[in-house]
Amino acid sequence: MAPRPPPIHRLCVRILLVSFVAAHRLVPPCSGSFYDFPFPAAGKRHDYRDALAKSILFFEGQRSGRLPPGQRASWRGDSGVSDGAAAGVDLEGGYYDAGDNVKFGFPMAFTTTMLAWSVIEFGDSMPRDERRHAAAAVRWATDYLLKTLAHPGVIFLQDHDCWERPEDMDTERTVYNVSAGRPGSDIAGETAAALAAASMVFRDDDPGYAETLLASARKAFEYADTYKGAYSDDPDLRAGGCPFYCDFNGYQDELLWGAAWLRRASKDDTFLQYIQNNGKTLGAEDSSNEFGWDNKHAGLNVLVSKEFIEGKVLSLQSYKEFADNFICTLIPESSSPHITYTPGGMLYKPGGSNMQHVTSISFLLLTYAKYLSKSSHTVNCGDISIGPVTLQRQAKRLIIC
């Protein structure tokens, strides 16, 4: 069975800065072949700043737990304040996944990673207030993720399914966890990535909190690498998480993804060596034109290639090549087999919730363009060479579509 279509708050995180950045960078208008279809009529402009503000505000509407005094979504009230009580732990907080009040650690951690990555790469382009609200959205998630790691040898991932107002919930809140006996390298690796990425968001404004996040990320990664396995291979966890949140793609990408973010956040050569030594066995070169909560390979390659592009770690050249291969599948003029587009120019993949692919891939296009723009590197797609302007243009076209 196909994975559950991602609820809207995971889509918002991936579109969060894409639209704003595309609109506020100097991106030439589309022209030529594939790009010859209409932009909005003259005088009609997309209000990207307003879209950005609403995307961040949406997170406040998804908050679980006791709401803070500065809560702007005033129509929401406290909910889920006793989450975790059934297992004798405190799991208050975090975000609901959708209207059924699920809190599930794996996709929530990916949401956190992507939101943090957005702030890291493009936060300087945001209005000051929105940058502050985005950091608060990251912290609401990381405060919860820290709780899931608070008990040695166990990582909690809560699940529940109840279609009602969260303020009115009176049914049992089921609690699941992974441990040495039933490993979950996927959830632990993604949690490590989320906490490591978030540590960079708070490094300047709250260095103590940033250090706590980074230390917890190391702890989560150590668990992921020591007790290898996918959480959905366990019968009890499979019953609670599947068919919607099974790990369809395996846990190997989350190990590399977690190590890559720990390398980025800590500059620790231990994680660089991990990436170099385990890339092949953990599937870094796996070809895929997908990037989302279950498949991190494309994002991993874009992230890791940054050090090679900057000329700092030449041994990571293969990750640049893997990232290029991914990018070439997105360029219609490329001779590589590429992803399908609708007649109007929208990236299309079969299955539910197509926008999850559009938004996440747009983000990678803009991020890779940013890395390339600070170097002489391009993307080699057979007989054509692609530069950062083309990647920016493609991302903007996808957003406007």
From TrEMBL:
Gene3D superfamilies: 1.50.10.10. This is cellulase. It catalyses: Endohydrolysis of (1->4)-beta-D-glucosidic linkages in cellulose, lichenin and cereal beta-D-glucans. InterPro entries: 6-hairpin_glycosidase_sf (IPR008928), 6hp_glycosidase-like_sf (IPR012341), Glyco_hydro_9 (IPR001701). The gene is LOC101761821. One of its GO terms (biological process) is fruit valve development. Residues 1-23 form the signal peptide. Pfam families: Glyco_hydro_9. GO terms for molecular function: cellulase activity.
